Each structure stands twice: as structure tokens, then as C-alpha cells.
Amino acid sequence: MPQSLPAKKVLDAVRNAPGTRVKVAVSDIDGVLRGKYLHKDKFFSAVDGGFGFCDVVFGWDMNDQCYDNTTLTACRFFSATSSCKRMAARCRIRSVRDSS
Q1: Parallel, antiparallel or unpaired: strands 86-89 and 51-54
Q2: How large is the greatest C-alpha to C-alpha distance in the chain, in angstroms?
């Protein structure tokens, strides 16, 4: 369950945690968290400036099948022969899940 913590406490915990990666996630249109790992340096950079996240996650259903209504989903940007577009994402630092 996400906790609301002061940003400084979250950033200090990440800085002092073992390992070199932080998992970040966005919620797709079905409410499924779609995540990726960022190196800690990239994470701290993303806290201030955001980061890119593939927009195809907004065109998948919970079974990883693309929605076929391309006027309403991000899949209009994606095909088997092209790469997906990046959407700007921002870190919501005060919402955190502890993986330990």
C-alpha cells in the first residue's frame, strides 16, 4: 500500500538503500502498474526534470493485448515496424512502496 511520506525522507531512503536501481511505474488505463527500473542517478535527475515512459502502456489491456480503437489509445503511435513514442512522466515522490 502506498504511503504518503515527506519527499526528503523518501529521497534519503533511496540514497542510503543498497543497490543501484529504483523501480518507477505508471498506471495504465486498466489501473495496472507498468514499471521500469532507473539507475539511482537517473532517478534523482528525474525527480527534478521528469523522464520518458513508453506510451504504448496506455494502449494495452491487462492481458498485454493492444486495444484496437486507435482513436482513443496511444497505440496509434505504435506498430510492429516502428518504435513507441516517449511520454513525459514526473516522479510523485511522496507516494512510495517499500520493496523490502
Answers
A1: antiparallel
A2: 45
